[in-house]
Amino acid sequence: MARSPSPSIFRPKQGVDQSVMDENRKLVRDINRRNLLRGTLSLGALTMLTGCTVSDTDTVQSFLRTISAFNDKVQEAIFRPHHLAPTYREDQVVKPPRFNAYYDVEDVKPVDGASWKLELAGLIQDKRPWTAQQIYQLPEEELIVRHICVEGWDYIGQWSGVNLGQFLKRIGADTTAKYVSFKCADDYTETLDMATALHPQTILATKYAREPITDPFGFPLRLRSATKLGFKNAKWITAMEVTNTFIPTFWSKQGFNWFAGI
Amino acid sequence: MSNSFTVKSTRRHRLHPAGLRAMHWLNALAMVLLIMSGWKIYNDEVLFGWLHFPDALTLGVWAQHGLQWHFFAMWILMVNGLIYLAYGFASGRFRRKLVPIRPAEVVAEVRKALAFKLAHDDITHYNAVQKLLYVGVILVIVLQVVTGWLLWKPIQFSEALALFGGFQAVRLIHFIGMAAIVGFLVVHVALALLVPKTIGAMVTGGPLVDDTAPDAVPAE
After folding, report:
1. Residues of B in contact with A58 (CB under 8 A)
2. Which of the residues A24, A108, B22, B68 has the least number of beta carbons within 10 Å of its own beta carbon?
């Protein structure tokens, strides 16, 4: 019996939900108020510099994104799949970890661990969803590694959880596929290249400093890769898809480099 | 041997050959893009609480655009810079124009400069301070490229990062390198404006010189 391929978890099931506007109200407000004037000033400066008119900035942006895509390729080429990030001592760990998201910490909407499920989609044999309890029973690996943010700050964190490569094998994922994509409870999306997903220091973290992760840091499940910038480490994961189709991510859509390896 | 020497000595060329001028201005463009976009990136997470760069002087609407410009201009700087270094060594230009740098001459030139008695009739000859500044800024740019790669890929190059003292140390070195280049730029542009024919020479090529002119003979 032929089974139809499972639909992408990224395809909206029932049109555009108005709640998206509510959830992103702060972002929209920020764009309107705080940055419009500043943005206009910078656009003006940019215009003088390049000799383009403002209407050409789409062209400039498309050019710069082409370069960014080239930089993705460069990063893939120099990525060392077996090279381990330096690890640190437990007494160097910063507690609690530093918060970062596309909104402030007081706007975090906690996820109910009891009803939470990890949905699976795409090139995976066993797509049965996982409960938090099932995931927390998997063998754990601990990483004490440096978190480096694209902004320039860093700290040492102590994360544990199931190794992503081993989890992918356990669920029968096609590890020759190109990408592993994540969807999060706060509508954040993230996509990892398979080489990074299979790196020994990429885990689905359930604990920080030996304690279950707290709400602001991604309870019940988040990604932690030692070879990616901070923002690649999706929090409050609700679904995972293994795919050969690139799914643009929350930040890549806004112009941040997609690969974002470190 | 002597044949090739004769041929070379009769070849006259512009003080700044066309290729060199193109590299100079391309480097200037890349440098300005890198500095302005770098200030944008810096503003997102400052090293010094008292220092934020004015938005009007930064490049990019938001941080991601600063990053996009930075990681575009770095390729211009690197490719252009590698060609420039290869040319400088292979053509003998570095040997003819930038060395030797004698400390006594540097001191003497600094004294003259402070007394506003700098001689600049002959723009084909670099004085000791100029040599020091040009060699210095070339080395700083090389350091910026190295520390830039380490900041971009601190884990892939974790061994080299450790040699420099870690991520935040390299961030600071990269910042200091920027400050040194900006300092150079201020002096370089100010002096060029004081002696405008140097700017003309970097546009049109300047006077015809030949490689065996007295100032061009390598010492020893």
Report:
1. none
2. B22
The single residue listed with the structure tokens 């639909």 is A7
Q: Domain residue spans in chain A?
A: 78-254
What sign has the CA pseudo-torsion B154, A262, A81, A238?
A: positive
Using the Cβ of B121 and the Cβ atoms of chain A, whether some distance falls under 8 Å is answered with no
What is the phi/psi pair of residue B152, to 5°? Answer: -70, -40
Place domain A78-254 in its CATH homologous superfamily. Answer: Oxidoreductase, molybdopterin-binding domain (3.90.420.10)
CA distance A17 to chain B (A): 28
Residue whose entry in the numeric block shows the structure tokens 């309870």: A219
Q: What is the pLDDT of residue B119?
A: 72
Interface check B162 vs A, CB under 8 A: yes
pLDDT tens profile B85-99:
999 999 999 999 999
Query: Closest chain B residue to A201 measured between Cα atoms?
Result: B155
Residue matched to tokens 């006594």: B104
* Helical H segments across B99-214, by residue range: 103-114, 128-152, 158-163, 167-194, 197-204
Query: What is the Cα–Cα distance from B150 to B141, expressed in whole angstroms?
Result: 14
pLDDT at res. A18:
54
On chain A, the residues whose CB falls within 8 A of the CB of B67 are 150, 256-257
Q: Please identify every stretch of chain A with a pLDDT value under 50, giving residue numbers as ranges.
A: 1-4, 16, 32-34, 36-37, 39-40, 44, 47, 50-55
Q: Which of A57, A2, A245, A255 is nearest to A150 (CA)?
A: A255
Average pLDDT over residues B166-178: 98
d(CA B95, CA B117): 27
A29: helix, coil or strand?
Answer: helix
Which burial class, exposed, middle or buried, applies to A223 when counting CB atoms under 10 A from its CB (0-12, 13-18, 19+)?
buried
Per-residue pLDDT reduced to its tens digit, A161-194? 999 999 999 999 999 999 999 999 999 999 999 9
Selected residue of B57, B65, B164 to mutate for chain A interface (largest A Cβ count, 10 A): B65
**Band of pLDDT at residue B153, cut at 50, 70 and 90:** very high
**Alpha-carbon distance B191 to A154, whole Å?**
41
State pLDDT tens for residues B67-84: 999 999 999 999 999 999
